[in-house]
Amino acid sequence: MQNWKFAISSILGHKMRSFLTMIGIIIGVASVVVIMALGDSITRRVNESFTKNQKNMRLVFSPKKSKDGSYTQTADLYAVDLGEESDEATVEPPKVQEAWIKELAEIPGVDGYYVNNSAMETFTYESKKAERVNFIGANLTYIQVQNYKIIAGRSLIPQDYQGFASVVLLDEGLANNLFSSPEEALNKVVMVGDYNYRVIGVYKNPDNSAGSMAQVYGGNAITTNTLLAANFGLDEITDITVRVNNTSLVPELGPKVAKKLTELASPQQGEYQVTDDSAIYQEVQNIYGAMTGVIGAIAGISLFVGGIGVMNIMLVSVTERTREIGLRKALGATRGNILMQFLIESMILTLIGGLIGLILAAGLASLLGSAMSQMLEGTPVTVSLTVSIVSLLFSASIGIVFGILPANKASKLDPIEALRYE
Cα 323 vs. chain centroid, distance in angstroms? Predict the structure, then answer.
């Protein structure tokens, strides 16, 4: 206990010097903890997004059959369409009927489906304009399966499809952009290209974030896929998605569903395949892991420099307190007592630095979390208890490691020579 008192009194006796010594530790610990907090939040967000997307099995037509007969198309983050001319590029996918997709929904394990088409259009209301809006033509099950929440007005109904009604639903962001509020948007007529659409509702995607494509572009809007096809010369069905609630069934159900659709469509060439995004997910994880490693190494250099600073200041402290060490030894202090005194002082120095760095990291994480709240919506940036404990233990270990040399030097001083020291 006496050693702890000596260590604390020595640090408090040289406050400014002690603080300057801690700076390297403070910066290093704060950097590492913030990186880990951000990494944890981003990883959780990616995992949640990937799990959600895994429930939606997207079916695409491929002019080339899968070599292994898996009916699976692996997505590649770095895949580039070079637009090579070939016989396969001219193969037209068969016209899909929604009745076929309804048959897919009857396969055990499949909970729902939706089909849609889309176009990138400009929305105009009086003097206001929203460019590059993702205009989606959806079937009747689209909004329900996507779990969109209607916050004003109503959703699409069968009569809208039967009568080719010129109606549209806007997402919340687009409604606020063109109008003062979602309620204000109701029953207003917006112009899309050469066509007028009456706003019948405003919806919100509970899983949406500002980092999504809807925010990168001008927003999302939904109408019937039949009307969008008629007005903009599109197929009524260009995207097919089958939903499952148990993601563990995806590897089995995906190929089964794709094979069934291929049988129903009977294309002359090619087949329908289920997309597999696991490769993209793994690539994103690898990229982030590499970035974390590089930034962590830079922060580690800061910790190393901080440790050198601690060792340097402890060597100065040993020199300054040579007579004190000699007096303690003359009064019966053992080499172990002296060694422990300086190790404890070094450890307390780095531990306090680590604590300050941890507090600083928590504040920075909170600020960054607020700044990135839209991109990481629903995923707060926080410093976990485990990271806090590990960072403090690591700080203490730096003090021990870099304090060994000065402590050892102090413990080996000859008491007689130390007492003579001026």
Answer: 57
Instruction: List alpha helices for 331-414, DSSP H.
Output: 335-371, 385-411
Look-up of token digits 């929203």: 130
Whole-number Å distance between alpha carbons of 160 and 201: 13
* Helices 322-330 & 278-320 angle (0-180, nearest 10): 70
Q: In this structure, what token pair is assigned to residue 409?
A: 């030097």
Q: E strands along 126-161, which residues?
A: 128-138, 149-153
- Name residue 325's amino acid: I
38: left (phi over 0), alpha (psi -120 to 50) or beta: alpha
Interatomic CA distance for residues 266 and 309, integer angstroms: 74
What are 364's two structure tokens? 């920075």
CA angle 2, 6, 7 (to 5 degrees): 115
Walk along the chain (422 residues) and give the pLDDT tens digit of each residue.
666 776 677 777 778 888 888 888 888 888 888 887 877 777 777 666 666 666 788 888 888 888 777 888 876 655 545 444 445 556 777 888 889 999 998 899 888 899 999 999 999 999 999 999 999 999 999 999 988 999 999 999 999 999 999 999 999 999 999 998 999 999 999 999 889 999 999 999 876 544 444 445 789 999 999 999 999 999 999 999 998 877 777 888 888 998 999 999 888 888 888 887 766 677 777 777 777 777 777 777 777 888 888 888 888 877 777 777 777 777 777 777 778 888 888 888 888 888 998 999 888 888 877 776 655 555 677 777 887 888 888 888 888 888 888 888 877 777 666 566 55
Q: Is 382 helix (H, G, I), strand (E, B) or coil?
A: coil
Question: What is the C-alpha separation between 186 and 199, in angstroms, rounded?
Answer: 5
Alpha helices in 233-334 (DSSP H): 250-265, 278-320, 322-330
Q: Which residue type sits at 410?
A: A
Structure tokens at 75: 């997505």
Strand extents, DSSP E, 163-230: 167-171, 189-192, 195-204, 220-224
**Residue of 261, 16, 4 whose CA lies nearest to 115:** 261
Cβ(155)–Cβ(235) below 8 Å: no
Burial of 194 by CB count in 10 Å (0-12 exposed, 13-18 middle, 19+ buried)?
exposed
Contacts 24+ apart (CB under 8 A), 74-77: 74/276, 74/278, 74/279, 75/275, 75/276, 75/277, 75/279, 75/280, 76/279, 76/280, 77/279, 77/280, 77/283, 77/284
